[in-house]
Amino acid sequence: MQARDVMTRQVVTVGPDTSAKYAAEVMAEHGFAALPVVDGEDRLVGIVAEADVLRDRLPEDPRLHLRRDGTAGGHPALLVRGVMTGAVRSVEATADVADIARVFVDERLRSVPVLDGERLVGIVSRRDVLRTLIRPDEEIRHDLLRLVEGYTGELGSWSVSVTDGAATIRRTSGAPRPSAAVEERALSALARTVGGVVGIRVLASDGPDTPAAVQPVSAHA
Q1: Rounded to whole angstroms, how far apart are CA atoms 154 and 150?
Q2: How far apart are the C-alpha atoms of 42 and 17, rounded to whole Å?
Q3: pTM attached to this predicted model
C-alpha cells in the first residue's frame, strides 16, 4: 500500500508571501498543526507550523515581566517566508505506508507532505495511516479474495478469512502453480497491498493446517 492510497489530496497550503497571521488563522480555524508552503507551481518550498507563528509573536505583559534595561522585543516576521522551516521531511506518492509509519514513530511527526517529483500532491497524517488498521475484517476479506481470484484466475478455488487484520489464504481446490513456494510468495506479496492486513498466512491446500507461510506484514514492509 502506497502513500497515494491513503493520503489527503485536497491540501490547504499557503505561499511564502502569505501573511503569517493569516496562516495562524487557518491553522486555528481548521485544527491543523502545520501548513505546507508552496510556490506558484505547487512546488514544496517549506512548512509553517503552529510553533513557528507563536514564536516571538506574543509580547510579554510588562506587569508580569519587569525589565530593568527597558528594552522591548523587535517586530516579528510578518510573512510566512520569515517563519517557515525550509528543510521539509516529505515522502513520494509511491512510498510504502509501512515506511511512513516508521517515520511517524521514529521522527515523532504528525504528518508529512506527499510529492510527485517536486510538486505537492497530498499530505498523509498519522490518522490516515491509523485508518488502514481499523478497516472491518469482512471488508478486508472481500478485497483480498477478489485480488487472489483475479491474480490466479481460479474462481471458487480459494478461502480467505481475516481476524483482527490477520489474513489466512487457503487453496480449496486445484494444485499450486507453478509451485507451492512461488504461489505462496506471490499471494503473500499481493496481500500486503490490501489496507488493514497486519499478518498473512498462506495454506497450500485444504488439508492439515500446515502453513506455507506465516508472516507479519511489518517484517516485510
Answers
A1: 8
A2: 14
A3: 0.69
Which tens digit of pLDDT belongs to each residue from 179-189?
A: 889 999 999 99
Phi and psi of 143, rounded to 5°?
-65, -40
User: Which range, of 101-105, 110-114, 134-138, 202-206, averages the lowest pLDDT?
Assistant: 202-206
Cβ–Cβ < 8 Å for 178, 146 = no
Distance of alpha carbon 71 from its chain centroid, rounded? 46
Q: Mean pLDDT for the chain?
A: 85
**pLDDT tens digits, residue range 75-113?**
778 899 999 998 899 999 999 998 999 999 999 888 899
- The cell for 154 is 481460479
Complete domains list, the chain, with CATH: 3-133 (3.10.580.10), 137-219 (3.30.70)
Rounded percentage of the chain residues whose pLDDT exceeds 70: 84
Instruction: Tell me the DSSP string of the chain.
Output: -BHHHH-BSS---B-TTSBHHHHHHHHHHHT-SEEEEE-TTSBEEEEEEHHHHHTTTSPPPTTTS--TT-----PPP-BGGGT-BSS---EETT-BHHHHHHHHHHHT-SEEEEEETTEEEEEEEHHHHHHHHTS-HHHHHHHHHHHHHHHH--TTSEEEEEETTEEEEEE-SS--SS-HHHHHHHHHHHHTTSTT--EEEEESSSSSS-EEEEEEGGGT-
Q: What are phi and psi of 77, to 5 degrees?
A: -65, 135
How many residues in total does the chain contain?
221
- What is the Rg, in whole angstroms, of the alpha carbon atoms belonging to the chain? 25
